Amino acid sequence: MGSANRGNWASRLGFILAAAGSAIGLGNIWRFPYVTGKSGGGLFYLTYTVCVIVVGLPIMVAEVLLGRATQSSPIVAFRELSSRRSPWIGVGWMGVITGFLILSYYSVVAGWTVHYVVLAVRNSFVGQSADAIGALFGELVASPGANVGYHALFMGMTVLVVLGGVSAGIERWSRILMPALFLMLIGLMAYCFFLPGFGDAAAFVFAPHTTSFDASSVLKALGQAFYSLSLGMGAMLTYGSYLSRDTGIPKSSVWVAVLDSAIATLASLVVFPITFSFGMQAEAGPGLIFKSIPIAFSQMTGGYLLSIVFFVLIVFAALTSSISLQEVVTSSFIDLFGWGRRKVCLRTGAIIFVFGVPSALLGSEGFFGAGLQKLTGKNFFDWVDYITANWMLPLGGLLIAIFTGFVLERSLREEEFRRGTTWGAVYSVWLPLLRYVVPLAVAVVFAQSSGLLKLFGIDWGS
Ligand code: PHE
What we know:
Helices cover 76% and strands 0% of the residues. The protein has 20 helices and no strands. Helix 3 runs antiparallel to helix 12, helix 14 packs across helix 15 and helix 17 runs antiparallel to helix 19. The chain starts with 11 loop residues before the first helix and ends in a 7-residue tail after the last helix. It binds phenylalanine.
């Protein structure tokens, strides 16, 4: 199984950093705070944490295990573990499509972060009022040219790194940039600790109040867990396929989940203190971090340099995630069609860029922006985000759990779990979670969200 020239992580730490690099990204820094803000804060945070532990972690182990066992990309992995004509191959395909869709709009948001590097370099924050800083975001989103341009730039960067291959490109960057981002966020949080709104912010994030938390928030918490941990579409499977067969899985997975949640928590403890201290709305939506974080820099000493470093780090955090999305598509096409890495990267990257253009037009008056928004309550960007994160990733994760829990040969599953780890005993916890808890949790949330439960007279809210 697997081919010799696929490349491997240089070490276990290399894998953890690369996988954490995939997990930690805009999902933690941009998406988590704004979804938490819109979905009620504390109770959402709690639900999210439960989803990470009982649903996310078991699936992460399953994905990495499938990848390491086959040393192949998702589609080929399912083919090898079932049969040539098996419908399970569809799970691999769905992963490729999901990766394609997520990357198409992920790159738009990442483009915004590139723009914020430019704004920081031009010294656009220091000494400015909160309103003036908020207006910068409005201007950006309303400009189709800037949005499409930055989106193109970011897709170009993603393709370039993935062209470099696995350990040369991906591992090297993650090693330096992930720790740097972590330190920077801790420093920022320390600064925000002294803002007048810190207490309110901590209460908002951690106290289990029920404002604007309803049943649909559970779907969002579940979706956010999948999104943030890069689960349900084969990204972790693909990264697992570059793991040497003697490197253990459960402990590394726990590390990735802990680091990921730590960064999301830190990001919230930076964003919300600023939000509350400056009388902004926690429910501001996708613009939240762009409107709030620069305010901190506008006032602090050294704000000019720090703002540049900060946004550069976010661009890199986004990049270490976008390359995992691009890598799923790339490795699948390489394994399937035997094309060269270069050809696959350039072609798929170009198609993903084109598909992302309607998302980049979210602030326009045209059909993809205001038009759809008026018709459906969501613009194109919102729709792609909503469908992929809340439905496709959990569905993919559900199918991966069922496949690993029930379809995969018993001895292979157990042997692969125990190989290379001192945590072999955890198998007896992992398997029931994967077999029963994950499917049940995802199914109930889906049933509730699609209105199915209402048919049976059960109604937990909207
Ligand atoms: N986990 C990434 C983030 O938090 C996004 C992502 C989702 C990456 C799915 C790969 C697969 O930004």
